[in-house]
Amino acid sequence: MMSDRMLIRGGKPLSGSVKAQGAKNAALPVMAASLLLKGRRLTLERVPDLQDIHTMANLLRHLGAEIEFSRGRMTIDVPDDLKWETPSDLVRRMRASSLVLGPLVARCGRAILPLPGGCAIGSRPIDFHLKALARMGAEIDLEQGSVHARTDGLSAAKIYFDFPSVGATENILMTAALTPGETTIENAAREPEIVNLACALRAMGASIKGEGTETIEVEGVGDLGAAEVTIIPDRIEASTYLLAGVITRGEVTIDAVIPEHLEALTSKLGKAGAPVDVSRDSVSVKCRGLSWSGVTIKTLPYPGFPTDMQPQIMAALCLAEGTSVIHESVFDSRYMHVGDFKRMGCKIDIQGNTVVITGVSQIAGAEVHASDLRAGAALILLGLAAEGETIVCSLKHVWRGYENLMEKLTSLGADIELLPDTLDEAGLSG
Ligand code: EPZ
Asked: What is the dihedral of CA 113, 129, 308, 400, to 10 degrees?
């Protein structure tokens, strides 16, 4: 069990290079897509070794799949007959569990899924998923906090999303792949993880056009076959390490990435005066002895600035010269981290879904708590830049999304160590 607390001795410029992990948010939907197979194997390469990946693997095992996973390679053998009731303890642990809903309805005609809870970044309903499945012919009932979906046969439909939801686009893309006829998804999400999923489905024999644009067309097929799929690099993990280089005024290179996936961040860093070098498959920041200026950021669906980088860019802008404004337009409450930022001396004023940041020249270490995955990463960035010692607690959120975090940061020169859990965190207090 990984420790829940990290001690950071800040103030040291990071330098060196690290390799990006496989993308968590690409691997999770591709794993769920394996349920569309009947008595066949899906093989995935470059799967990151993360808690969320193991949660999804255990969910698929519960449904009947056999899974082997080591050194980035995962094989998923899907039986002829699947269970279609999902276990509450696994589903409540990870919202992405909702990605098995569409495949189960398409494959088994039934599914029971406990409604995933909200989390620190918002209420996170799945109404878009349910409305779209209903349009395709699924009967959806909510009973005792669970979604009961059933159908005697789905039919192709024209789906329009009020918001380009990543998860809803993924759920319907997978469902449509096995639904006879042509399904069109309008106002679809355009994230690279959607494109990776579409490539995986196409490798399995699906007929898909338009992924990565706002309109995706799927011609359903009767059966899908075995395939080997490589997961794309994790653009959010990669961007987090780049900002570690910026915030510590160091020189950091992230290798094995697709630079265009990081463009929203790298173009903002350029505007802020942080020098960025881009090569075919790596991106570097060279900030030794430099300062950067405040900028204005609005988080948007891809290709806009990613909401999953909002806490991390906020951390860097707290140490910029001048004022910055961030508007969070994707989630309804993604500012839980601001309180802990202020404990370290950051100057942030929340006005609804907008924050105004006044850059300061120095922040001080403190004991802080991660409220969610990306907030935890952002607090680590602040700790790396702060004078003195920072203890980041509730690291369980961070282990969900950052593979080999301690090794990677240490290789860049960070002075960090894991602390034994306190008695109460270890549940040993009297
Ligand atoms: C995916 O979540 C990612 N998770 C999130 O990353 C990411 O923040 C998010 O997309 C936005 O980019 C995975 O891919 C596993 P959405 P998802 O559906 O699919 C509202 C991380 O850090 N909405 O695009 O849940 C929703 O409340 C995680 O790795 C509805 O109202 O995001 C939110 O405000 C955090 N009804 C907005 O849409 C719905 O049915 C975007 O949500 C679905 C969504």
From this structure: 20
Ligand 1 pocket member 90 (CB < 6 A): no
Ligand 1 within 6 A of 338 CB? no
Which of 108, 119, 346, 393 is catalytic? The answer is: 119
Q: Ligand 1 centroid vs 161 CA: distance in angstroms?
A: 13
What is the position in ligand 1's atom list of the atom closest to the CA of 28?
15
Ligand 1 midpoint to CA 297 (Å): 19
pLDDT digits (tens, 9 = 90+) for 44-76: 999 999 999 999 999 999 999 999 999 999 999
Q: Kindly calculate the radius of gyration of the chain based on its CA atoms and give it in whole angstroms.
A: 22
Structural domains in the chain plus CATH codes: 5-21+233-419 (3.65.10.10), 24-230 (3.65.10.10)
- For the chain, first and last CA: distance in Å? 22
Does this model's pTM top 0.90? My answer is: yes
Asked if 346 is an active-site residue, the reply is no
Q: What is the mean pLDDT of residues 330-353?
A: 95
Which numbered atom of ligand 1 lies nearest the CA of 374? 22
Angstrom distance (rounded) from CA 224 to CA 61: 20
What is the rounded CA–CA span in Å between residue 30 and residue 199?
A: 10
User: Which residue's CA is minimally distant from atom 1 of ligand 1?
Assistant: 166
pLDDT for 245 equals 98
Give nearest CA residue, ligand 1 atom 30: 125
Interatomic CA distance for residues 21 and 24, integer angstroms: 8
Is the predicted pLDDT of residue 337 greater than 80, yes or no? yes
